[in-house]
Amino acid sequence: MKHLLLSTSLFLLLFFACGNNAGQSNEVVSATSAPAETADKNYLTMKINGVEWKADHGVFGAFHPKGYNKVTMISGNKGPKDATEQFFNINIYNTDGPGTFSFKDGNPDLRVAQMGGWNAENYICGSMMGHDMRVKITAASTKPDVVEATFEGELTCNSGEVLKITEGKFYYHE
Question: Is the pLDDT reported for residue 43 higher than 80?
Fold first, then answer.
């Protein structure tokens, strides 16, 4: 089951990173405020154990993509596209639009946050290893896809190390 959840999460991340948004509805939910970064470029930033982490490619967001249970997706990658690449994603299922969402591993909606490739020892943090997140979605729409959010929480790695996430900011405009 753990491998299926990880494989499914990775598949969804790769699938949506390719930009497949055919057949989405024109559902729009108005924004309340944007995170305080440059509003003309997509970004995913956070502090992990007090150290800045910033995605340098693969920043992607989606709100209610066709075929998924009202999910809001947040993702981004950092580093070379090889075995040392790090990826981060949050999938919040059963969302109607902007709001604050708190969730832990084992939640009934299967909401998940995870970091892959943190280092050679900790290849998966969060997901089925354990997560406790608070995400505030401030804007969400489809056609064009828009997702803006702030977040914080903890991800437990496969070794037992805990990554403390603070000052998380996400901005994606298709």
Answer: yes
Per DSSP bridges, beta strands 28-29 and 43-48 are unpaired
Rounded to the nearest 5 degrees, what angle is found at the Cα of 58, between the Cα atoms of 96 and 46? 70
Listing DSSP states for 91-110 in one string gives EE-S--SSEEEEEETT-TT-
CA distances for 54 relative to 27, 31, 46, 116, 129, angstroms: 29, 23, 7, 14, 23
Contact 139, 98 (CB under 8 A): yes
pLDDT of res. 15 = 34
- Bridge pairing between strands 124-126 and 162-173: unpaired
CB 10 within 8 A of CB 3: no
Q: Is the dihedral of CA 108, 32, 17, 49 positive or negative?
A: negative
Strand partners, 112: 91
Query: Are 104 and 120 spatial neighbours (Cβ–Cβ below 8 Å)?
Result: no
